């Protein structure tokens, strides 16, 4: 299903033609992270609405979102990240000039090769270029690998909120970083 990437070579803006690969990678990574915690039918329903090619195409044409992809030496997409200007979080009401790091997903075979850090730096650079001074995200409290990465990248926990998939309510930690 997923490619066996070479070393990451570039980060670029996602194209509408990338939607199917982003959807495939997003569904795979989301399932690997969450499948054990939700009923299969609820996971399938969530993936259908959030990680279908049509849903990703809609995201790629949304003026409030920027999507970057990381490619390997063979120009295969091995990761992607989203910035979202159209979201808010109550615990950040007093934080000015903020943008959400909505997603950052890395192909499991590319993890540990610096792809996540490369994407994170590129997304932060893009946010700064657009005038944002703070970046926030929500991450499942049980996603230890992601929490460790975000902490290494300078994020700190400032609150939490509920994230619902079907009948399951999970707790996401809200993290913030000054750019």
UniProtKB/TrEMBL annotation:
Q: Name one GO molecular function term.
A: acyltransferase activity, transferring groups other than amino-acyl groups
* One matching Pfam family: Acetyltransf_1
Alphabetical list of InterPro entries matching this protein: Acyl_CoA_acyltransferase, Bact_Acetyltransf, GNAT_dom
Entry annotated with the keyword Acyltransferase: yes
Keywords of the record, alphabetical order, are: Acyltransferase, Transferase
What is this protein's name?
N-acetyltransferase domain-containing protein
Q: Which PROSITE patterns match?
A: GNAT (PS51186)
The cross-references to PANTHER family, in alphabetical order and at most eight, read: AMINOALKYLPHOSPHONATE N-ACETYLTRANSFERASE-RELATED, AMINOALKYLPHOSPHONATE N-ACETYLTRANSFERASE-RELATED-RELATED
Location of the N-acetyltransferase domain: 9-179
